[in-house]
Amino acid sequence: MDETIDNASSIVDGVREKLMNDWKILQHVFKLVEKEDTFCADPELWREQKIVDFMQPDELKKHIDLTIKENETSTNSDIEQICQQVIQYSVKTSHGRFHNQLFGQMDPFGLAGAWITEALNTSSYTYEVAPVFSLIETEIISTVCRLAGYSQGDGIFAPGGSSSNMYGLVLARYKRFPTIKSTGMFGLRPLVIFTSVDSHYSLQKAAHWLGIGADNCIAVRTNAKGQMLLDDLEDKIKAARARGHDPFFINATAGTTVLGAFDDIAGIADVANRHGLWLHVDACLGGSALLAYKNRSLLRGLERANSFAWNPHKTLGVPLQCSLFLTSESNLLARCNSIEVNYLFQQDKFYDVAYDTGNKSVQCGRKIDAFKFWLMLKARGYGKYGHLVDHAILMARLLEQKLRARPDRFRLVLEQHEYSNVCFWYIPKSMRVQSSEETAEWWARLYTVAPKIKERMAFSGTLMIGYTPLSSRQLGNFFRMVFTCFPVLKTDELDVILDEIERLGDEL
After folding, report:
1. Is the Cβ–Cβ distance between 175 and 278 less than 8 Å?
2. How far is 32 from 296, CA to CA, in rounded Å?
3. 79 closest CA partner among 37, 34, 38, 26
4. CB 219 within 8 A of CB 303
């Protein structure tokens, strides 16, 4: 260490003199990224290309030198080789048979936008450092507010759907108790929020982070489709008040994580109005229905919500991450979140400081997530994405038909899902029996099938589909297939997917 300090001047000079050569690494990395095996986006090559070259952690550590040392020198050629290894052993989420998450293949225009924002390396807090990007974020928020029916709306890009949902809670609390911003929650009755038993876990985490308490995040029962039961919501609001607590927030879900269910937003809005509660809609998954033509009605009543969250990186194919929080009330974000920051948000600047949007964010530095989404919309117009959303949902309905056509081998969790999610079980040959023989033991055994097939998927690299239990219904593991706008699938691909599950299942 002492030797390094003694040589500090020569080390710094060496970095300076070599820096322009170091920039050439970008040319080599771009060529790596350009290779077909990086994105695996060509349908003609899906059979030959693996989604992942899976290794167990200890084995993978032997293939890539992950150690970090105090004194280490690598040439551009060394770094290029390391980057090649990282690509080789990573999951190719743009492979057309990756259906493992709520996101999938990227839109190439979105990736182009992401590259530009990374290269320019600025932050989205002031017009001074992000002039074009500040205007772009403002334009997208204005457009989405208009689509949602928010005539006086406002919004912000946030680092993921969990943060966007938390924005809703913070605004609702501030709207109810403006002094909470300065004095805190001391002396208040326990605040209570309501969300469905099938909603995203981020609501419970937000209740914990904001001092509301996870126990005061009340789970409301759902119906057979996974939608919040309005009678149970009403009963639980009354019960909370009877306990001396203070209900203030309802979260409706537009596209639940597992079943893709849409709560009755209009019906919940009626309940919220009767009781004077803030209505937030977690549309992180289903918000893309805003653009749809045939499926726009899934979001009926959204215009009556006080706020909503939407992740265009789901369904639409915007590169991770891209998440919006929108509220129907203008200036509320700024009143709630802004504080005096003299070194950054000066009011005597040489331009209109209304475009300095960073003070209404809880963050300081904020990634430029708006540009990649904006570039996609400029390239295709949001109408094309509406048709692609409808197509993804159509593919889900067609898959359900194909699953029903193989009743001895597949079983749907729901006869028809609402969005682009399809949940189902695969029944191996050894378990195909008459329905009268489907005992509790038979079902317990069936719940072990999806994890075993998923393991075979990983090692074969031919397909990736997630599995999950659903504790709210006491259901064990089943497959959750999620369709997105990209890849734009043809119908025959659905048979390929089911055939591959059967092939892997026959090896059990």
Report:
1. yes
2. 40
3. 26
4. no
293 contacts: CB under 8 Å, gap ≥ 6: 386, 387, 390
Interval 149-189: pLDDT, tens: 999 999 999 999 999 999 999 999 999 999 999 999 998 99
Q: b/e string for 435-456 if b means 16 or more Cβ within 10 A?
A: eeeeeeeeeeebbebbebbbeb
What is the DSSP-derived secondary structure letter of residue 106?
P
Taking the alpha carbons at both ends of the chain, their separation in whole angstroms is 56
SS3 state of residue 155: strand
Say which amino acid occupies 124.
S
Q: What CA–CA distance (Å, rounded) separates 335 from 353?
A: 15
User: Do residues 421 and 225 make contact, with C-beta atoms less than 8 angstroms apart?
Assistant: no
Which pair of tokens denotes residue 411?
């079983």
For residue 243, what is the DSSP state? T
3-class state of residue 168 by DSSP = helix
Q: What is the largest CA-CA distance in the chain?
A: 81
Element (H, E) at 110: helix 108-120
Q: What share of the chain is helix, strand, coil (3-state, %, to 5)?
A: 50, 15, 40
Span 58-79, pLDDT tens digits: 999 999 999 999 888 889 999 9
- From 349, 316, 333, 394, select the one nearest 113 (Cα to Cα): 316
What tokens were used for 140?
Answer: 């997208």
Q: Is the pLDDT of residue 124 over 90?
A: no
CA distance 75 to 128: 37
CB atoms within 10 A of CB 81: 14
Q: How far apart are CA 160 and CA 180, in angstroms?
A: 25
CA 193 – CA 231 distance, rounded (Å): 16
**In 3-state terms, what secondary structure has residue 402?**
helix
- Exposure string of 385-406, with b = 16+ CB inside 10 Å and e = fewer, is bbebbbbbbbbbeebbeebeee
Give the pLDDT of residue 506.
Answer: 87
Distance separating alpha carbons of residues 270 and 250, to the nearest angstrom: 11
For tokens 């378990």, name the residue.
Answer: 431
Amino acid at 126: T
Distance CA 289, CA 441 (A): 40
Report the distance separating Cα 385 and Cα 170, nearest Å. Answer: 31
Tokens 């995040």, residue located:
217
